[in-house]
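Allow me, if you will, to draw on your knowledge of protein folds for a short while. A protein sequence and the structure tokens that stand for its backbone fold form the material at issue. I would ask you to consider whether the tokens describe a fold that such a sequence might reasonably adopt. Thank you for your consideration; the sequence and its tokens are set out here:
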Amino acid sequence: MFDWLDKLVALLVENIFDISMSTRLGSSIHFFIYDTIKIIILLGIMIFAISYIRSYFPPEKTKRILENFKGIKGNIMASLLGIVTPFCSCSSVPLFIGFVEAGIPIGVTFSFLITSPIVNEAAFAILLASFGWKLAVTYVVAGVVVGVIGGIVIQKLHMEKQVEEYVYEMQIGKGEIVEMDNSARLQFAKDNVIEIVNRIWIYLIIGIGIGAFIHGWAPAPLLAKYAGPNNPFAVAVGVVFGIPLYSNALGTIPIAEALIRKGVGIGTALAFMMSVTALSLPEMILLRKVIKPKLIASFVTITGIGIILVGYLFNAIGHLMSI
């Protein structure tokens, strides 16, 4: 898809910068420029398309939709809505309160909270650009499965008492759902592209910069030996290292891309990325405002195990995706 860009950037590096592509510096510069342009192009397209769809699912409408689904259907719907519903650390607490206040089961709520940060249109766009549609679609499916199963397990544990008492006592009321016409939806999508890119560009640049360094300078044999698909502990270590970090999928995907090109197992790299987005320490600190430590520990454990299993799955089937 982007062969033309790859060749154009190679010409730029060799003819304008006068740096050979066979050198580490030339390879790193090519990676940085190529990935930056490629990601921005697909990011704009995907954010616009999904934002248009998202305009049909404002938070209040999402809450009302989930009120109508019970059992596993609720978990599945919550995870699917998590893909197209805006989510960030600052929104986790009010969304959680809104879902609990609406009487949505705690397991369904957690299906949404697990899937939403892992799977989003921006992450899908970068995965599509970096690895192709097979891995991008498989990643989305994996994120939904982790969300559904994680929510079901949390529901089975009957941990409603692990929610802070004041949450059940709050009455935030029913918000008004404002319907948009087509012109307003297009403007919403355009504004969302600008807003999201302005908010996350620094993560992109940092992530691509780290990825470029790894691509040009990291010793491939060493990474492949200790973090390759043949190391049975690599996935678990990747998840453990990802939890304390604060970033998002946009900043970690370019790093994952560089690691995979150096021989790191695809499942290991993606498990690291998923743990950063779904289990980051700042996110847990915010959730502590509404849920007790026992439920946070269960959430981290269940989601972490799910991500590890997904990591091993990707390591096993990565060769089928022509990466």
About this structure: The mean pLDDT is 79.
